[in-house]
Amino acid sequence: MKLSRYIILSLLVGASALVLSAQQNHLSGIQVPEKHVIKKKGRTAEVKMNLDLTAMPDMKSNLLMVVTPVIQSNTSGEQVALRPFVLAGNKRYRIVDRRVSLNKKHPFNNPETKPAAVVNRRNGKAQNLDYATTTPYHPWMRNSSLILMAENTGCAECPMGHEETSLTDDALVPLYEANYQYNIMVPEGELVKVREESLSAHLAYQVGKYEVLPNFDGNPAELQRIDSKLKELRGNSDITFEKLSMVGYASPEGGVDYNLQLSKNRANSFADYLVGKYPILKGRFESDWKGQDWDGLKAAVAKSNLPNRDAILRIIDEKSVEERPSALQALDGGTTYATLLASFYPPLRRSELTFHIVVKGFELDKAREIIKTHPTRLSLAEVYAVAQSYPEGSAERYETWTIAEAAFPQAIEPTANAAIIDMRAGRYAEALRRLEARKSEQKLWTLLGLAYAYNEKWTEAEKYLSYAAQHGMPGAQHNLNELRLYMQDNL
């Protein structure tokens, strides 16, 4: 649509071109009874307002004002000029009216340049103008003002300055705000807190031998770690020690049967050593052996930057156990195999110890200490009590759930509650990261859908909220309905 000279000028110089030379601001007397004058309809913004001209200062008989309503963002420089309307004093109105009547090619007779209205201003009398037009909707209009800009001319089209006034700084009828509902998950308590705490011991043995040598190589430090763990458990009145289980592993060089027998002998030897040194383990010790740890090697190589990483992984995946050593030795003349022997095999020769304990219940003050040192010794119900003891929105409450998330990777409550706190704090990307990592968990689908919604990923949001609703997840149908209402009004 072709606009008036003023609109073209305003687009060139921007909305900051305020009153330049007007002696009197007639626009300041124009009022609208309603605060919101723009309504979103699909992709269109409908502008409707009843302009009250009654309080306008008197217009001189030869004055003509081309008034352009402008929708202007409150936070950026974006703006849209709408179809103008014309206000004219008595003489000027009659002149314009006559010209329009006699000249079919007059701009006011052209649908593209025709003003929304041509009004003869009646000074000192009540007067209203109903204005309506449409323009494409833009998201920035959610926070926008509607202002009037005028170019004034006198007789013979002589310029008489510019005027500007603001009608409302909240122009858009508020769009639908979704009322999503989600609450912190309350975990169930445990009658008995049975826990397993692991320790990996890397004892060194003489080649082909299985006798435990306490002073050999790095063994003193490894045995000290086991000793410290047992002393900590025995000296803790909050814990009842149940048993110790151990699994022995060997690195994958050499024959399969040989390594299996060697790992068995070393496991039994280590078991005898521990039971002999710690009487508490008598009758409460279990041992097993697994032989060559190809799974451990595969995991370590997969995380590495070895040049032949992919080739090594293919050998492990595609070759039989008997064929793997020679295939690895054949890579780049043995260089890769030498690296495996020096850096990757030694950590595989180990004993995995698991201490089975029963932990008593804790009072709140003690639980607040334990969460920082041994979080797995708490029940999730105790974690919940610790979290709730801190103020809503506090860093301590959030930290409690993030600690629990790491300590209880199989439980959904810590992930859910940390994500809820993220969403309430506006950390939408962090909430989505947490929940996407566990998108296979049906009980988290409602929260995952909401996290997608907060991140404006509408297709995924509707998908997971629909999944959750179909599976009867609490609150899912309500949140799905809210999402659809929001999308209908806002997108």
Overall pLDDT: 92
Structural class: alpha+beta
The biggest beta sheet is recorded as: 6 strands, mixed
Q: Which percent range describes the beta-strand content?
A: 15-25%
Distance between the termini: 25 Å
The gyration radius over C-alpha positions equals 39 Å
| Outline type | elongated
The portion of residues assigned to helices is 25-40%
Encode the helix/strand succession as letters: HEEEEEHEEEEEHEHEHHHHEHHHHHHHH
Spans of at least 5 consecutive residues with low confidence: 1-22
Q: How many separate domains?
A: 3
Number of helices: 16
What is the count of β-strands?
A: 13
Can you put this structure into words, describing what you see?
The chain is of the alpha+beta class. It folds into three domains: 164 residues, no CATH class; 164 residues, 60s Ribosomal Protein L30, Chain: A, CATH 3.30.1330; 72 residues, Alpha Horseshoe (Serine Threonine Protein Phosphatase 5, Tetratricopeptide repeat), CATH 1.25.40. It is 38% helix and 21% strand. The chain has 16 helices and 13 strands. Strands 3, 4, 5, 6, 8 and 9 form a six-stranded mixed sheet that branches. A four-stranded mixed sheet has the order 10-13-11-12, with helices on one face. Strands 1-2-7 form a three-stranded antiparallel sheet, with no helix packed on it. A hairpin with a 2-residue loop joins strand 1 and strand 2. The longest helix has 22 residues. The N terminus is likely disordered. Keywords: Signal.
